[in-house]
Amino acid sequence: MDKVLEYHDLKKYVPHRYPFLLIDRVLDYEINKSIKGIKNISPYEPYLKKGDRTFYPIGLIMESIGQLAGILFSLSSGNARSKKVLIGSFSDVSIKGQVTVGNQLYIEVNIIKAMDNSFIAEGRAQCAKEEVLSIKQLIVIIK
Hints:
The chain is of the alpha+beta class. It is built from two helices and six strands; from the N terminus they run αββαββββ. The chain has a six-stranded antiparallel β-sheet, with helices on one face.
């Protein structure tokens, strides 16, 4: 199986669509273990069009990590979009920098513990090889 998923492929795994789909490509994944993806930060993003905002919002970085975790669950379960994936909580979030327009956000999620209908993961986002945000614990619930 090809471990790269392009933007149009992601629609099989998450219900989100533009402008709410915050992952542009999955670069690699290992079932039940980890996933890596990217988000390109364009000046044409609708949430950047108000005023002179040039920074990608921190909340959307967290949402990008959550969406990538949801894609990993869908890939791991083999049931593309047959179940709802909800983010239960984020804890121990560390903000270390900002992401500006024109950059590429590199996102990684690793499963720490998998259970029947949920899993605990950790996630981080980098820009230009510098970590900008990390989440020590992300709880994903499957309904």
